[in-house]
Amino acid sequence: MINRRTLLGAGLGGCTLALSAPRPRAQESWPSKPIRIVVGFAAGGATDISTRVMQPKLTAILGQPVVIENRPGAGGNLATETVVHAPADGSTFLMGTIAALAINPSLYASMPFDPQADLVPVAMAGNVLNVLVVPADRPWRSVPELIAAARERPETITYGSSGVGGAGHLAGALLDQMAGVKTVHVPYRGGGPMMNDLIGGKVDYAFSTAPTALPQVHSGRLRMLAVPTAQRLRALPDTPTVAETLPGYEVQNWYALVGPKGLSPAIVARMNAAMRETLSDPGVAATLEGHGVEPSPSSPEELARFIRVETAKWAPIVRATGAKVE
Questions:
Q1: 159 has which bridge partners?
Q2: How far apart are CA 208 and CA 169, in angstroms?
Q3: pLDDT at 32
Q4: How do residues 268-311 score in pLDDT, each as one tens digit?
Q5: What is the helix, strand, coil percentage profile of the chain, to 5?
Q6: Is it true that the peptide bond before 300 is cis, omega within 30 degrees of 0?
Q7: In 3D, which of 145, 295, 140, 134 has the Cα closest to residue 222?
Q8: What is the bridge-based pairing of β-strands 253-260 and 92-97?
Q9: Other Cβ atoms closer than 10 A to 3
Q10: b/e per residue, 50-86, with b = 16+ CB within 10 A?
């Protein structure tokens, strides 16, 4: 497992000094108009929810309206391409995910952009808890029971995800591979639409982000079987890990803010500072944590290194699962 705390924590002292230095004039004049943050999934999904939690504080800090724009499709690629082609004037950013920034380059046969070459890292936003959930009317109460059902009925058990290439998709594909079963992936255009069908029983299970799933677990509409982390979580001590059934199983999720290539270092530094201040706000942090998102601010340089590491990590896993999108 990649230790995000160690990776993202390195070099923070130097970053603090850089942010406290006198601001260039270009930085002082920005922003002069509303700022758009593009989200690659439908409203109501975890990426959308988390970004909207940050929105009011960012607006207050920057002194300009921060507007969320949902552009779902292709596992976040449509939103990413929108930002790649946006003016590099600080008016448009992407709340990127593990899918668009690290997994999709290995998953898609061809990509209209290169996340590392065509985007500028700004700041890590948070690490996101995913949970394995099933509709309350399904009989399975453990990962072994779900796997047994998949073995008895090959290619009939379905799992939903927020889109092709997302953590939920790869989590299901990895479960199939490690358990030696064949289930059917049903991709949606975001966690919100997927959750509606999961609650309605149109799909059998999902590795859903906690912000989307936990309210439904608490309401009794869904049953939580496991978490895909390496160890049990302090917040959910009675919930087993998938690795307790399939040793070595682990899938994590994360969000990060990036901008179009050519974005000035002054604007990057100002937006990074705004993200740090937002994520350190007690109210914002508590709300995010309540949704299963751990605020994890970083410097732009740390985020760039992290994206490189995650991209290299997921490439062999995607190949091993056989997942591919034309």
A1: 185, 205
A2: 10
A3: 95
A4: 999 999 999 999 999 999 999 888 898 999 999 999 999 999 99
A5: 45, 20, 30
A6: no
A7: 134
A8: antiparallel
A9: 8
A10: bbebbbebbbebbebebebebbbbbbbbbbbbbbbeb
The bridge status of strand 92-97 relative to strand 130-135 is unpaired
Assess contact for 52 and 196: CB atoms under 8 A.
no
The whole model's pTM is what? 0.79
**What amino acid occupies position 274?**
A
Q: How far apart are CA 299 and CA 310, in angstroms?
A: 16
Q: Which amino acid is at 272?
A: N
Q: Per-residue pLDDT tens for 122-141? A: 999 999 889 999 999 999 99
Q: How confident is the model at residue 15 (pLDDT cuts 50, 70, 90)?
A: very low
Domains of the chain and CATH, by start:
4-127+253-321 (3.40.190.150), 130-244 (3.40.190.10)
